[in-house]
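EI: anyone free to look at a 384-residue chain?
SC: sure, send it
EI:
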Amino acid sequence: MKKFLALMMALVLLLSVAQLALAGEKEEQWAIDNGLYLDEPMDELYEKAKEEGKVVIYTISSRTQKVANAFMEEYPGITVEVYDISSGTLKEKFVTEYEGDIHTVDILHSKEQVGEYTFEIFGEGMLHNYQPASIFGNVPESYLTLTPLMLELNLWFYNTEVYEECPITSWWDLTKEEWRGRVVYQDAAKNDAYCAPLTAMVQHADEMAADYERVFGQPIVLDADEPNASYAFIKRFLANDPIMASGSDEVIELVGSKGQANPPVGYSSSVKLRKTSDGYAINYAPDKMNVSNGIPALNFVSIANECEHPNAAKLFIKYWLGGEDGQGAGYAPLVSLGSWSVRPENPSAEGNIALADIPLWDIDFEFIYENIEDVRDYWIAHRS
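SC: here you go
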């Protein structure tokens, strides 16, 4: 009986693997059949897209509607429906619809930082990359795990009313007594965007150890509960009483409000530099930061498996990335301080520091996906 049960379990496992393989082949064949690996000229795509007459987009950005309006003006005969959905609910909405055999959306635009989309959605074949060489031929390979639209960063902001230049140049500065209670972060237990860079830091513990020696003039001595220099940073950072903000706007308010004698520094989304127009005295100097500023938040675009309007989706994505020369009107709404294209043909906002001058760790979604919960647990264990 035991042998029989073991045999049956093995057969069930083999059948499950076979079903997954067949499903993967089916989804891959759909991508091939619908030209996702071709690089068709935009005028040819337009003729095919007009026959479909429509494209539906789920997006995390209100700026997408501006792109849609410009697209409809340039490509009459194609209606663009844009649904602006918060990043916290977009993934769940898409998966629920897909598993219910509802294929409403053609293009999904979201942000990847911890590997959830990479391994749970793309890995299951629900979404496809579309990376024609005419658009992405000059994009660095490290950014092509997904189809990149633009990058945003979390960076260290400082108060320009008090400091002429950024007062920190290392993560280790934040563990010094002079910064006790004067660093604004967000709770990494609740916010993946703040836990992900710490996880990347763990992957680069040797760099953190070398930077410790640069800052303090001697090699780091690890405590028994500090597995490496990066975990040591997390523990010592938390012991220095950082202020936990509820969101990026609060970080900017605490850092950049005028009239402070001893303002904190704070880690916030790079796009918040625009808050200077609201009267906040803020700036960042990521090119002065040693080792790394963290990892990028990758805004990506993708085509939904079995979507109804694949040619319109391909045309829109090409348009969104600025067309074949990168200078088209589709990318214009994305040109702003604190966001960067990884496509060198695209324009950058005046005043943006060149992306190549900003120290960053490469995005290793596999490492982050496999280790982020361990880092989160360590954070929770040492959070006061």
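EI: The longest helix spans residues 2-33.
SC: 👍
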